[in-house]
Amino acid sequence: GWFQQDALRIRRAAAAAGLGLDHVLVTSTHNHESKDTMGIWAVSVSESGYDEPYMEIIARQTVDALAEAVAALRPVTLRTARGDANHLVNDTRLPRVPDGGITIVHGDDDSGAPVCSWLVWGNHPEALGSDNTLITSDYPHSLRAPVEARLPGTIAVFSPGTLGGLTPPIGVRVCPSADDPAVDECPPGTFARAERLGRAAADIAVDALVQGGVVAPDALAFRRLPLRVDPDHLTLFLAFNLGLMPRSIDEDDGTLLPRETVALLTIAQLKERGAHLMTEVDGLRLGDVEVLGVPGELYAELFVVSDTGQSLVERPANGDFADATPEAPLSPLLPADARLRIVVNQANDALGYIIPRSQWDADAPCAYDDESQYGEQNSVGPATAPSVAAAVAALYALTVQ
């Protein structure tokens, strides 16, 4: 993950470099096989895994990449497509709401030569499993490389779609045996699995583009809106308080609390001062694609709707807030003239799982068949989803000049 203060660090550095950029949208792939960029995975609970010099290297290299992109700017014609990769994604938490479509936004120059490809797909990059200790990008490299091979000259970029719910490749048969389709010849925890998963997704995206890509109209716009989130997770608050997770915290009046001050205050004192997290939501229009950026891992039922246009958020009887009014689905809030409406997760922040309030289920009895499910332990709290939903509604009520 990549916290907002580090996204802002990149924006400030890009501005200082005189790149002339109106907006910088920073996403993290949510790769499970890299160095710690959030501070959570140190060797002991008394330390932070956050490495400031390493973070500065990433920020500097990101600005270098932005400068390289600006220097290489040229007109392109966009083509867009969406392929069905649901069979490569598993939803491991009830209710199961698949959102495994992979979107590709591709640009060709005036001669028809490929220039750029942006791919968005909601699937946790954890094909190599939790036992792997080697640094790797997991499947995103194996997704990007085949796209660049099949569209020579393009530079492929990957961003994550919906990640909450929870959507990993765990439990997916990536390489079904010809002799017995129930047998997976790419077992979990292997590089073969990550490579085959990425390649399969790449082929789906490129095939969709080649066979049914639609030339997009000329359109480029963005909108962004600040968002306040009140954390209600004592363990995370303690991690912020102790500096284990160096996430910026703001007071009620918008004043940024210095990390040294945060370390001196108790959790009760932080709450008394109205301490909260400032983040943002973003909207980006590229041709006929509207992209919503959310600062965490959104549950798919908060974005997609049923075939009849109804919300897929449930109100299980034993949920902690079973009487909560379900949040309005976010995709219908995006402009109606967008042919494709997609969401990018981990956009400019990493606030963990964004769980529908009515499905929040930290306390017994459990909501679904007395089965405890994973998610709440890595969320800022049950107020996050309503706050994000309200902010997205306000974002798209804005008039873009």
Q: Distance between the terminal alpha carbons, to the nearest Å?
A: 32 Å
- Indicate the percent of residues in helices: 10-25%
Average predicted local confidence, pLDDT: 93
Shape summary = globular
| H/E topology pattern | HHEEEHEHEEHEEHHEEEEEH
Please mark out the parts with pLDDT under 50 across 5 or more consecutive residues, or reply none. Answer: none
Radius of gyration: 21 Å
Give the neighbour order of strands across the main sheet: 4-3-2-1-5
Number of strands: 13
Number of helices: 8
Which sheet architecture does the biggest sheet show?
5 strands, mixed
Strand content: 15-25%
What does this structure look like?
- The model has no long low-confidence stretch (mean pLDDT 93).
- Helix 1 (4-16) crosses helix 2 (52-71) and helix 3 (139-150) runs parallel beside helix 4.
- This protein is α/β, with parallel strands linked by helices.
- The protein has 8 helices and 13 strands.
- Helices cover 25% and strands 17% of the residues.
